[in-house]
Amino acid sequence: MNLPSAALPSAALPSAVLPAAAGIGLRAQHVGQVEATRPRVAWLEVHSENYYADGGPALAALDRLRRDYPLSLHGVGMSLGSTDPLDRVHLAKLKRLIARTQPAAVSEHLCWSSVAGRHFNDLLPLPYTEEALAHVCARVTQVQDALGREILVENVSSYVAFADSTIPEWEFVAAVARRTGCKLLVDVNNIHVSAVNHGFDADVYLAAMPRDAVAEIHLAGFEVRGALLIDTHGAPVAPAVWALYRRALERFGAQPTLIEWDNDIPPLATLLAEAATAQSMLEASDAVAA
């Protein structure tokens, strides 16, 4: 599974860490425009699984762009919370992509999406129990050992909860970071969506996150469907989420912040405008801290 040396990019990376600035999720519709215009955005994030091929134009474009932008690899298919064995082929492909692109960050979701070999097109919440906590911590440790690096784990949005849960979600997430040494990708939109759906206080969630474990923040849009908020990643960041983001910056300080948009993808200029709003808030938080 090793890459031939000729396939490894020779250019030096622009940064070994993500800057505490605003980035955007790079989607196929925008690759050509980003390559042509090199917009003033601090970093790029891609879905890891989209680049598991051995070659091709998408991977070649990523090779070129990572020379100018710090890169984050964001996975959606590891199924960290599943009771199925870890997919070693998936892990090997991710490790190969890491060797090729040398990303500043590698992240996955704290969820499950497969059982008995069947995969679901969703990121499903875990039961928040001591048994599930021990299980997912062991899985995170296995992944980090296999990759030879720490990963970031992201909180997911949810619409139902397990009746057997005995640990508040925020305490569960914090415990995963403490027990495994992984970092946290705090999705502020997901916290807001789940807080509304389940009736908890989003600020209690933020307060439970260990400051030294937070390494990235995500912002995205949702839709209102009846009594529920649905995390669609297909709309601008809502005012309530911007307000929660401001409070997250007060808690964690300036952190790498990503604008995610995966459905009904708008023109690149719209993403850049959302990133500019996040950037202005990051700079204001730095000024206040100073």
SSE layout and pairings?
Layout: E1 22-25, H1 31-37, E2 44-47, H2 57-65, E3 71-74, H3 88-101, E4 105-109, E5 112-115, E6 118-124, H4 130-147, E7 152-154, H5 169-180, E8 183-187, H6 188-198, H7 202-208, E9 214-219, E10 223-225, E11 228-230, H8 239-252, E12 257-259, H9 268-289
Parallel strand pairs: 1-2, 1-12, 2-3, 3-4, 4-7, 7-8, 8-9, 9-12
Antiparallel strand pairs: 5-6, 10-11
Helix pairs in contact: 1-2, 4-5, 5-7, 7-8, 8-9
Outline the structure in words.
With 290 residues, this protein is an alpha/beta fold. The protein is built from nine helices and twelve strands. The chain has one domain: Divalent-metal-dependent TIM barrel enzymes (TIM Barrel), CATH 3.20.20.150. The strands form three sheets. It has an eight-stranded parallel beta barrel with strand order 1-2-3-4-7-8-9-12, surrounded by four helices. A two-stranded antiparallel ribbon has the order 5-6. β10 and β11 (228-230) form a beta hairpin. α1 runs parallel beside α2. The chain is globular.
Give me the number of helical elements: 9
Fraction in beta strands: 15-25%
Poorly predicted ranges (pLDDT <50, ≥5 residues)? 1-12
Order of helices and strands: EHEHEHEEEHEHEHHEEEHEH
Rg, Cα atoms, Å:
18 Å
User: What is the level 1 CATH name?
Assistant: Alpha Beta
Query: How many β strands by DSSP?
Result: 12
Q: Mind summarizing the main beta sheet?
A: 8 strands, parallel, barrel
Q: Quick one: overall form? A: globular
Strand order of the largest sheet: 1-2-3-4-7-8-9-12
- The CATH superfamily turns out to be Divalent-metal-dependent TIM barrel enzymes
- Looking at the structure, the CATH topology is TIM Barrel
Number of domains: 1
**Quaternary structure annotation:** single chain
What's the average pLDDT? 91
